[in-house]
Design brief:
Layout (H helix, E strand, L loop, with lengths): L3 E8 L2 E7 L1 H6 L5 E5 L7 E9 L4 E7 L3 H8 L8 E6 L10 E7 L3 H13 L3 E8 L8 H7 L2 E6 L6 E2 L2 H10 L6 E5 L2 H14 L3 E4 L15 E4 L2 E4 H4 L2 E3 L5 H8 L3 H16 L6
Parallel strand pairs: 7-8, 7-11, 8-9, 9-10, 11-12
Antiparallel strand pairs: 1-2, 2-5, 3-4, 3-6, 4-5, 12-15, 13-14
């Protein structure tokens, strides 16, 4: 269990792992996440389950290398074992037949968005997927979305692929075309989710976002993942990770996410140097 069966680098610093975990594969639903630990003295950190395969007994994890722990996870190879994988955690996505729905993913946010879009399609919805990235080489899961969605639009900040601009520009295009949408799911960096919510709020389009603040235990005990939604304190690990985007206090969320940014960058750089330093022999 927890053995890495397949490893792929699908974009710069973005890794996809297929991990053997039969119990998780049987229970995982869209929106669920796991808490991982790579080593005995390592930190616990959350990753959303990007896909699961019950017959094969596997789950798929897609992550971006942003700190020491994800750098160490990225160094594991096929055949290696992840020390701890705990889950499924969080509340599953509310999947119903809504009609035509919009699924918007920015950057690595396309990974947790994919199982949601897939489940919405299987429930009989018409799925319009919008995925964005800074540049063409950072666009992920386009072919996977095209296999399950009724329509896929891509945006890149620099215009190297798809529409030049942001995910919000594509959404504005849809509104300008008079497209009728029943619900929206938006997952990505905080500025992207905030911008999408500003746009959909004005259009009266109910929007769900998935929040990923700092987590330790994933059970609501540590309080590290607290967020403010509708003026009330919520815990992303047990009350979420999905919330009504029009009720989220994105300012407080951004401040919390920035708390350890500098130390994470230092740890990531130190880990990178250590891993690339040539071994010396006595």
């Amino acid at each position: 269990m927890n053995e890495i069966l397949k490893k792929e680098v699908i974009a710069p610093d973005v890794v996809r792992l297929v991990v053997a975990h039969r119990k998780l594969a049987c229970k995982a639903q869209p929106g669920h996440f796991v808490i991982l630990r790579v080593s005995e003295d390592g930190e616990r950190f959350p990753l959303t389950i990007a896909d699961s395969n019950t017959p094969q007994g596997t789950i798929t994890l897609i992550f971006q290398v942003v700190g020491k722990s994800t750098a160490l996870l990225a160094e594991l190879a096929e055949g290696d074992t992840i020390l701890d994988v705990v889950g499924p955690l969080g509340r599953a996505t509310e999947i119903q037949r809504y009609g035509r729905v919009l699924c918007a993913g920015g950057g690595i946010g396309a990974a947790p968005l994919y199982p949601i879009a897939k489940a919405l399609k299987e429930a009989g919805n018409q799925v319009v997927a919008v995925i964005g990235a800074r540049s063409k080489n950072l666009v992920i899961l386009e072919s996977a979305f095209r296999a399950i969605a009724d329509e896929v639009r891509v945006a890149t900040d620099d215009g190297t692929y798809g529409r030049r601009g942001f995910v919000t520009d594509v959404i504005a295009d849809l509104f300008a075309e008079g497209r009728t949408l029943a619900r929206c799911w938006a997952i990505g960096p905080v500025p992207m989710m905030r911008a999408v919510c500003d746009l959909t709020r004005a259009a009266g389009l109910p929007t769900t976002v998935s929040l990923n603040p700092i987590m330790v235990d994933g059970t609501g005990m540590c309080g590290g993942c607290r967020v403010i939604v509708g003026g009330e304190v919520k815990f992303a690990c047990v009350d979420g990770p999905e919330f009504d985007g029009h009720q989220v206090d994105f300012d407080s969320l951004a401040r919390r996410l920035a708390t350890y940014h500098d130390s994470e960058q230092r740890d990531h750089e130190a880990c990178r140097i250590a891993l690339t330093r040539p071994e010396t022999k006595d």
